[in-house]
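## retry 2 of 3
previous attempt timed out at serialization; input unchanged, resubmitting
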Amino acid sequence: MASIVEKSDLIVGVAGTGTMGRGIIQVTAAGGMRVIIYDSKAGAADDAKKFVSTMLQRLAEKQKMTPDEATAATDRISVAKDLKDLAACDVVVEVIVEKLEAKQALFSELEKVVRPDAILASNTSSLSITSIASHCRNPERVGGLHFFNPVPLMKLVEVIGGARTAPWVIENLTTLGKRMTRQPVVVADSPGFLVNHIGRAFVPESLRIIDEGIASPSQIDGIMRDAAGFRMGPFQLFDMVGADVAHPVMESLYDQFYQEPMYRPSPTARRLVEAGMLGRKTGAGFYRYQDGNADAAAEPARPSLNERVAVWLGNMDETTTVVLPKLLTNATVENGKKPSDSALCVIAPIGLDMASAIKSAQLDPSRTVAIDTLFGIEKRCTIMTSPATAPHYRDAALAMFDASHPVTVINDSPGFVAQRVAAMIVNVGCTIAQLGISPPADIDLGARLGLGYALGPLELGDKLGPIRVLQILDALYAFYHEPRYRASPWLRRRANLGLSLRAPEHMA
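## retry succeeded, writing output
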């Protein structure tokens, strides 16, 4: 079928004028298309047009568009008094309440109104497109067009095909997304679609680390920001989104994937919801907030030692061997194959917990600590201690660093913090690729534009090295004996073959 949405006189209907609906109205009108807006609540559509007009005028004031362009965009918006007024639309985007029955009922009514070749699209964030289309006489013309909040600022849109969605519908919705100046990614109809699915590692694995008493929320946030390079920490993100939003999504996806262990929710998040500690919106979550600012714990004071610390470095990579001594101001580095009788032993395990690493290297557990070198140690160093680490040697490990260099001390854990979280992000991305939900390039693009990651999960895996990521996951699996940490076949196959994680499958 010929392209519908390339028409110069394209008419787009938007059914539902809440926050998301208003954003979609704005980008559609600004993209040069006529928009007919409808809301079952009296006066809501008129209010939405006034709101969007104000937003367009503000863009003109900020010189993001000209005053004439803002006026023209507003003039392209018309208000439908009745659902039948959407009859002229080439595409209708539904943006109503996130309830399956309500969406199915609306689509059934829309089918009676629009032309047989008009496209019906849902902005659902969690419901199956196949289920929404199941009550339609012509499910082939139903697809998903999932935007992100705030729509005018978030450049990504997911184009979702249900089980019976026709290819021409996906092609037209992709073109429509581009006309709205969004970046479309094509996604299979799967729980969480693409972006919400990718997000099943960053916060959930960090919650698991808290649940085990390995590190505090502020420690984890500092590590993931400073060492791993994320724009914000997982608990900053959780508080910003709100526990009442983030936790139900975790529970929903866990159930939709039939209790897949990789996506298991955390009881800690559930308790925050039950306590009404929803994050920024209530003034308390993982952090307390005053005037919108988080009351984060200050970096602990460094212990002072009267004598210089003798430090033995075991099994370090070449970069760390060069960088680490430069950060030490109160230490004498030993170069022998074995530590002297009183030296602080510093090791750098990948994936292993300290107890296992100490046993393997046959070191004295009372004077051994570990550092995480996966992302480098230039911006923040994570020191891990075991239950056997003597307080004097723990203090010596802290005191040996320059006072201006951030250091976080955590309890024993396989994979530290950054290794665990990063490996799970990569593994979830590989799982999405293995399931064929999106092609590798779109998986990475979705993470960058939808989640604000500096690198997509497959790009991150390639940067760290697929073999190293596999090593971390296998060590986690060996330690916990939980299927949560089983490596994706996509990852294992490419690691064993020496291929990029972005290398596609070649179907026979």
